[in-house]
Amino acid sequence: MRSTALTFAALAATGLLLASCASSTTSTEADDAATVAVTTPTGADIEMPAEPQAALGFYTTDVDLLITLGFELAGTQPIRDDFTAFPDFFPQEELAGLDTFGNFPEFNLEAVLEAEPDFILNGLGYEEDLDGQLQKIAPTYTYNAFDGGDWRDVAAQAAVDLGREDEWQAWVDQYEARVADIRERLDAADIHPVVADIGLWEGQVTTSCYGVPCLVLADLGLEMSPLMNATDEGLPAGDEYTELSPEQVGQLEGVDIAFTGANEDGSVAVETDEALTGNALWNALPFVQNGEIHGFNYEMLYGSPSGQDAFLSVVEEALLG
């Protein structure tokens, strides 16, 4: 994950806009509503509405978490600059009719202000200067959802801090029930493949234990290729990843099933790159020969309830049909 900072001129202009409009960011209704005091993971003490009526998720995964936790959404929400809509695996009913604006990797604070949120959930806690800017728009709960660990840990803490433990536990319960059901069916059918999450970057085949795919594969107890560099517990090992040159891709010969990120239009780099598809070593790999490359919307990588559920479905379909 990386973001591009606003230009100095744009940042200055946005700062002036925030300063001039700060008094209008809280409606009369919000003034009259009950508030609760919350201390965020950044150490900020905020006063937020007890029942926000126009919550905004600063990154798309924040939008999904807001929905899971039962928050009312503002009428405008952000999407990635390289997407045209919310990810298709997000809860579409709750997102119906919402307007969108691009907000990553470039940040559009003017659009955030114009959305008139009464509460902001911001998972980009690694952007140290961002929290202070968002606090000028609305009470903001900033946390780091991209610290390389299990996103569920920080999301669970957010649910506790925001008084939404029951909503969070309801999601956990249904997810764990699905995992248990799939594991039981895999065991009954004696299906125990070696799996890997792979990608293509600048001509190199990559594999790592990053984000949701690694978490789901570990939850299901599947054997991951050692090239993924998972921890001994089968969990993410930070930013460690393996790069394989065209001459090294044969090292993936022990992988039975491969998963790979796909673009919004469904295109998959490892299936369209001519240099790779023309590589004899690549074409000799069992999962290539057997058509066991399964694409998934790459936005599932970044950790949200719907992304976790959706990748679980991808694996279920790949292994059980």
Nearest-integer average pLDDT? 89
Residue windows where pLDDT falls under 50 for at least 5 positions: 1-32
**N→C terminal distance:** 32 Å
| Number of structural domains | 2
| Estimated share of beta-strand residues | 15-25%
Largest sheet: 6 strands, mixed
CATH homologous superfamily heading of the largest domain: Nitrogenase molybdenum iron protein domain
Number of helical elements = 14
The general outline is globular
Broad CATH class of the largest domain = Alpha Beta
* Structural class by helix and strand composition: alpha/beta
Q: What is the CATH topology descriptor of the largest domain?
A: Rossmann fold
Order of helices and strands: HHEEEHEHEHEHEHHEEHEEEHHHHEH
Number of strands: 13
| Helix percent band | 25-40%
List keywords for this structure.
321 residues, 13 strands, single chain, Iron-hydroxamate ABC transporter substrate-binding protein, Rossmann fold, alpha/beta, disordered N terminus, three-stranded parallel β-sheet
